[in-house]
Structure formats: C-alpha cells, structure tokens
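Can anyone check this?
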Amino acid sequence: MTARIVHKVQITIKGRIELLDTTEAEALLRSLSTALTYTASTDQGGILNTVAQYYKIEVLTLLGRCRREHIAGARQVAMFLCRRFTPASYSEIGEYFKRDHGTVMHAVRTIEDRMVCNRKVKSDVDFLSEQIAEARKELAA
C-alpha cells in the first residue's frame, strides 16, 4: 500500500472558509493572476509591471537609480507608456518613478526619437502598447 500525501490550502471567500487541494489552489491562483494582470496593466503600476516582465527586470530595479543602458532604457519605455496610456502629468509620473518631471520629459522625447531610428525599440513599444490596449479592452468588456 502506498501513502499519498495531499496538501490542503485554507482560503476565506466572503467570510466562508474553504479547503482546496493544491491543484485547485493553483488553478485559482492562475485565474486570479491573469485577472490582476489585466486590471493592473492600465495604471502606472501595471504598466511598470508589464515593462519589467517584458525586459525581465525587477520592478524595484526599474524604480532604482541604476544607470545601466538596458535598465535605463526600460525605465524610459515605462515612462513613455505611462505618459501615453494614463492621464498622469509629467510631474505625477516623475513622482511615481522617484524622478524629476524633466527626466520624464527627456525619457518621452528619447523614446519617440529612438522609435524612428531603432526598429527594436519601436517593436518593443508597439508590443507593450498592444498588451496594454488589450488589457484596457478586457476591462471595458
């Protein structure tokens, strides 16, 4: 006879306690993760998360002071997308990224210029823009 260990996860939904096995809990977390990704993708934090995932950089690194080209470039893309997809001013975006409004203005101009002459930057921004636009459509539906 073989023993099978089954782990149970306790969750509370609207005041009711439920016990789920690990398979059910994983499925629930996956569906919640997808829903949260779509919800968050349309605000500054969500845009930052989307950019961080795309470039495989930690969010805290993007918000940090690192000036390495690939990190600073990803940060500039995130600022550009925040300006494009949110009603936030340069100052508000700068506050979120812990930067001056002039830094955000520079980032937006830089990404606009790079999109003209650098196919990789243009394709990155286009792809990320599509993801954010799709998330907005999902929210509107």
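Reply from J.R.: I decoded it. The chain has a mean pLDDT of 85.
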